[in-house]
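#struct-queue
[09:14] JT: dropping the first one here, sequence first, then the structure tokens:
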Amino acid sequence: PFLRLLEAQLQDQRREHEEEVEALKNEVDAMKEELEKQQQAFLQTLQLSPEAQVEFGLQQEITRLTNENLDLKELLEKLEKNEKKLKKQLKIYMKKVQDFEASQATVPAERRRHERNMQVAVQRKEKDFQGMLEYYKEDEPLLIRNLIT
């Protein structure tokens, strides 16, 4: 039984290795094709006159810069959208703070002292919960497995 398990694992590893080798071969073939295309383009530019070579180089650079500009424009749009969202959130929080401050101004001084004393008591109670645990949702299976073992 143990040898069969090892043999099965070995076959799985061999199969994975063969798949990786095949993927790498495909990647090498694709790179070879791309290199051939670039060599053909290079040979064609060498056959051009010097003025045409400069023009071709400029066209290539213009294409590269245009693509880069499009990527930057897309990034800028995302950042502007995020900025608008954050500004809206800030306005909401500022409004909440103003409302809270306004409500505190109308509360009599004694009541405020009583609330401060209650807050201190609540803080002390929260310290009693030192056994609580904060974790990320994706870590839950790992925590459960560790608790069981």
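[09:21] JT: and here's the second one, same format:
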Amino acid sequence: AKVKKSLPEMYAFSVCMWIKSSASPGMGTPFSYAVPGQANELVLIEWGNNPMEILINDKVWSWGGINDGKWHHICVTWTTRDGVWEAYQDGTQTGNGENLAPYHPIKPQGVLVLGQEQVRAGGGAALRVSAGLGARRVGWGSLAALSGNVIAWAEANIDIYGGATKGTFEACRQLN
């Protein structure tokens, strides 16, 4: 899925999503943001038997995993100041650190893709897309309270490719 809107230049962010996976090994790439000259400007990925990783400008930090077939709420926060980051799963902090791409602003005018890593901005075959992509669903909320202030993952803002389907998400209802 390709998000129609690009990110502005950012010096800090929080990204949150509901995600479910029972893929093995690794769940693949919930989202990737690539800019010209940097395919890994901002990526959330879990591949092989590795833990979940966040990449900013090709710098990597890792923590835990979520491949238990249940819905989980994931949030990652980051600030360019000292590269401080925190990861949360279901409201509990599961990772944190510093020196993750410190003083590197997230560049604007890139391409945001849900469900696949990008080799270059906007395209290319992904090297680390796991076989479990079909088993994973990324949900986005339709309620105003769940919408982001930079990009809301609303249905109208997303183009679907490769046989994926769109659907609304209700956090209180278990989906198959």
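[09:30] RK: nice, looked through the second one.
[09:31] RK: The domain at 2-159 is CATH 2.60.120.200 (Jelly Rolls).
[09:31] JT: good to know. The chain has one domain: 2-159.
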